[in-house]
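Could you help me review a protein record that somebody else here produced? Do not assume that whoever made the record got everything right. The record follows directly below this note.
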Amino acid sequence: MISKLNNNALSGAYSNNTNEAKQAKSATRKAEASISSQGDTSKIDRIKSDIASGQYKVNLEALSQKIADELL
């Protein structure tokens, strides 16, 4: 009897986590679809074209500062 109760509790906890994960994925997909449908890709398109034309510049000082901050 104890093992059945524990098994049921574990099954319930697992199914709740699975449902929450599915809901989170669904919300993320909806947000991504919303952004795509709104056409909010101007920054991405600008960066892509800058990379393709060789105009994209990496701010090495800012990049190194972020890396250092993450390590500390």
Summary: The radius of gyration is 23 Å.
